C-alpha cells in the first residue's frame, strides 16, 4: 500500500486547497458544512478521498447547519476537475472541456440534489449518492462540490471596472480511487487553431491529458512560426502548469496586438514535468475568413486598420454642406431683420 499512501497524501494535499469558503465574513451569518467521513476515507482533512470497489454503492453525508433565524436554501453544484487556459485547476462550476480520453467524470459517479432547504437554526444532511462502475479503473476521478446560499448577496464590489456580486459559498473536493496502481502522466497535442483570448487575436493549442493523473508543477513553452520557416512569430512560456485528469488545456498564444493573417503555420510545443519531456510540432491553417472575422472582433489591434476614404469623404462633405447651410441661413436672417437705429434717425429728421 506504499504507492497508494504516497499518492493519496499528494491528492489530500491538493484537496486541502479546494475546501474553503469562496466568500465569508465574521458577520455573514449564512451556514456551515461538515463532511462525515466514512471508513474508506484514505487521507486526513475535510475533502472526501475514498478508496472504493468495482460496483460499490455508498452514501456520504455532509451536515449543513443554518446559522440564521430564517429558512435558507443551499444550492448544490457538482463539477469534474478541469484545466483553465492559464494552466490552473478548476473544481467549481466551469465551462472548460474534458479530453476525449476521459472514461468517467465525477458527475457520472456521484449524484447530489440540486438544493437543500434548512429551517432556521437547524441542520440538514446533504447526501452524496456514489455508484462506482463495474469495471475497475486506474488513477483518480476528481472534482468539487460547491454549496451556495440561494439568492443571498453579500454585497457588491467593483473589480477591473466590472460590478461583482459576492455570495456566501463553500467549495470542497471529492476524489475517488479504485486501485493502488501507479499511473504515469501522458499528454497529446490535440489541435492548433486561431481564436480570440480576452478579445485579442491568438492561436489556441489544445493539450489533452490522456491519463487519470493530476499533474502539477509543469512548464510549457509554445512557439508559432510560418510553415517551413524558423523565425518565431509569437511565443509564450508558462511555469507551474497544472492539468486535471483527462482534461483539456486550451493554451492561448496571443499575437501581441498584431492583425491576424491567413496562411499556413506551425506550432512547436514543449511540455516538461515528472522527469519527462513531451515535444510536438503541428501544422495548421488560418483561412482568410477566420482572419477577417477575428480582426474585426479584436478591439486592441495596434497596427493601423485600413482607412475607409469613401466614408471619410462623405463625412467631410456633409460637414462642409452643413456649414454652408448655416452661413446662408444667418445671412438671410440678418437681411430680413429690421434695423431699428436707422428708422429712428429718419423719424427724428422729419420732426425738425
From TrEMBL:
WxL Interacting Protein host binding domain residues are 160-296
What InterPro entries is this protein classified in? WxLIP_HBD (IPR021759), WxLIP_PGBD (IPR010317)
Which residues are listed as membrane-spanning?
Answer: 311-333
Q: What is this protein called?
A: DUF916 and DUF3324 domain-containing protein
Name residues in a coiled coil.
none
**A Pfam family it matches:** WxLIP_PGBD
List the keywords (alphabetical). Answer: Membrane, Transmembrane, Transmembrane helix
Domain named WxL Interacting Protein peptidoglycan binding: residues? 34-147
Statement: the UniProt record of this protein carries the keyword Transmembrane: yes
